[in-house]
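Example record used in the benchmark description.
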Amino acid sequence: MPPALVFRWAVAGTAGVLLTFLVAYCFYVTRGILVLVLMAIFVAVSLDPVIRWLVARAVPRPWAVTIVVFALVAVFGVFVWSVVPPVAEQGSALFGDLPGHLQRLSRQSHTVREFTNRYHLTAGLTSLAADLPGRLAGGAVGFALKFLGALGSALTVLVLAIYFMADMRRLRHGLVGLFPPRRRTRVAEIVDVVVHKVGGYMIGNILVSLLAGLASFVCLELVGVPFALPLSVVVAITDLIPMIGATLGAAICLVVTVLTVGVWPAGIIVLIFFIAYQQVENYLIVPRVMRGTLDMPSMVVLVVSLLGGAMLGLVGVIMAIPTAAAVKVVITPTIAKKRADSEEAPPGD
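Model output (structure tokens):
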């Protein structure tokens, strides 16, 4: 091989390695923006079924996007205006009253008293509740900065999602156009299925979580459990988490019920309610709401949720499940075709 050709190959290889490192470094530097873009795309895809429903009823797409955005902002504003202040007030009162409730329960139960004395729970909660105002005051600046940063990120995601929703049809055609003509029909079908899966799962998951929060609020109010509103909000938020979210929210409500009202009859009633409601949710509500949107084994759902939570927290958990379902839809026909070809192939000698 001539030395000049070896030199050209070496230069080309070195340039390729440097370009790869440069691209990787650019992704690393802009990872925060890319995460926001990914979240905006996810929001746009999740709301696309609603927009398509409006478009099918002779509403122009720009007006459909405007209606959905204004409805989303209005619902969020009403939620913040009506729910957040009482949740903050009752949540603060709940945390401040925990030491007293634990002391009362310790006086009533010998087992609880031994447990709290062994691990010094009452003293620890009392000290934490006493130090909480000072810690909040000391971290007010940091909290304000984090809040402003989260607000800015939320506005960025909203603005990007509006652009993506408005141009969703063009984006889908552009994505399909990146593939060779012979594959575009299949790619278009895959894109439609992915949008249907993600949008259907997210809307259904939100509806199921709202039903769980509303039912929990009614039960806690009827039983007479204080702080029913923040507890129902906790149930609605945790219910978004697959597999373990409903159990986690139920456990929190049960602990607060036992500490504030007592084991009998309130604690038993709340326990029976959550056991019964989870059965109704798992076998009646979820199959009807999530019909055709999610078809994966429980172990895969759990592993995907853990991976998504490790990468992006609660947002990652919520995004991971429909993303995995969409990937399953994409790769299943290929795996089935390869399996069929291998079964039809003649055995070797």
